[in-house]
Each structure stands twice: as C-alpha cells, then as structure tokens.
Amino acid sequence: MDSSTLSFRFRIPNRNFRAVSACGSLLLAAGLVLAVAFPAWVRAEVSGNLVIVGNGPELTTIESLSRAFEKANPRAYVDVIWDDHSKPVEMVKAGEAHIAVTGSEDSGLAATQIAWDGIGILVHLSNFTKEVTKQQVADMFSGKVKEWSELGGPETKILLIDRPKNQNIRDAFERQLGIDGKIPDNAKVIAKDDKVIKTVVGTLPPMSAVAYISLTQGLSVVTSGVAVRLLPVDRVEPEVPTVKDGRYPLRRPVLLLSKKDPNPLVEAFGQFALSPAGRQIIAESYIPFERK
Fold this sequence. Notes:
By secondary structure, the protein is an alpha/beta fold. It is built from nine helices and 13 strands.
C-alpha cells in the first residue's frame, strides 16, 4: 500500500460477550416439557471481519459508522480502506472488499442508499455570475462555454477544476449532466477537497476558476468565511432542504455496494446505517436517506 492510501482498523477494547440466560418454566402435563423463552429485546449479534473501501469525501462518515457498528456488535471488526486512486467497485467484484462506498449503482452489485449529497458549483467570492442552469454547467464542463461573460459574469476565461476519473463524485457529476468522458483534458485535476478550495481561492485571475464539490464541504467553507461562493443552479439555492426534496438538481446518492450473495455482516452494516443511531451519524455530514 503506497503513501497515498489511508487504512483504518477500528478495535473496541474490553469487549464482554453477554450471555443471556434462558428462563424456563417446568410444565407438568402428560410428560415433562422444558420451555425456554428469551426476552424480546435480545437480538443476535453478527461477527466476523468486514472490509469497506472508498475514494470519495465520505471517509469521516464511514469511519464514524464503523466505530459505532463495532460497539453495537462486539464480535464484528471493520477495516476501512480509503485511497484516492483506488477502484472500490472493482475491489468488491474481485473479492478484495465487502462494501464499496460510491455514488453510482452497478448492475452487477446490490446497492443500499444511506444518504444524499448535493454537488455544489464553487467559484471565487468575487465572481459576480448570478446563477447558472444545469445545462450551462454541462456546457462549461464539456468545454462548450469558455468565457464567464457568456453566463453573465466577468470577461475572463473559465478555468475548470476536475476530479480524478475514478472518484465517485466525478462519476455522478458526469452522469447527471450527460457529459461522460467530455470534460476537457486541459482541466486541472485535483483529488482533495481542501486543495480544490485553495485553488479556487488562489487562482489568478481570481474570478476564473470553477469546481464541483461535495455540498456539505462547500457550505462549510462558505459559512466559515473563505472567499468562495456556491452558484444557484436552475434558480435553486444549494442548501440541505433543497437537496433533500430534490429541488436542487445536482445531487448524488451515497451508496453501499456489495455482492448480491447473502452476507449477514454486510446486511447488518447496511441496516445499522439506516437505523436511528446510524442516521444521526450520517446527518453530521450528509442528508440521511429516508425510505418511503
């Protein structure tokens, strides 16, 4: 594993297996019958090793979910492997991992959605472009629109900031805009969100750069006073409520992909992520998915 790979192994110390004693009552009838009853709240705990892989902005959330899952299941152990250059879906298909965290479904794998994430269009604070349409975003990132003035903004060239081809946010972004494989080769490719933000802030001329970013991260830096802003898309502000109800047009699901073969540990992790405890963790960074 190279230096760009982050591997996390979580262990919860001092685990005590709880033995639940059965309570029975001796019934006298035409023979002796021993009835054993377990309290209704007792549930079977899963056990074993679970490997979760990803390459996107979900690391902190998955890390927290894994810690909480291990606490709830003392005989389960979770390895979280995060690498900007990895291919999580292929790793699951090859049997190198159990769960891939991604933003797009794969017909060969089972998918469990756990959250929504908006995709924000990030520009410098001094860029006075009022708003863009979804089609204009597609035209920008496919190279059809090259000047901000074509969108009612400053007379300067548009500098595109792209993400690595294997990252799930790029995959979802391209699919939603219908521009698969059309982002120009001269776009600047940056993997880390913090570097994307620094590049938008520091690019000269300052009004030229545009990037797409996880909305939660984008909203965080905007509210903290960093010299950036998020453009409204189709006259809808990029906010948590508009992403949740679907009015904001650029959003991606946060998915757990796994093999379709039954696996109690994988199923238990997915159920935990959708439980009240899991949703509370997810809500710290994303919009928890609500099953209808």
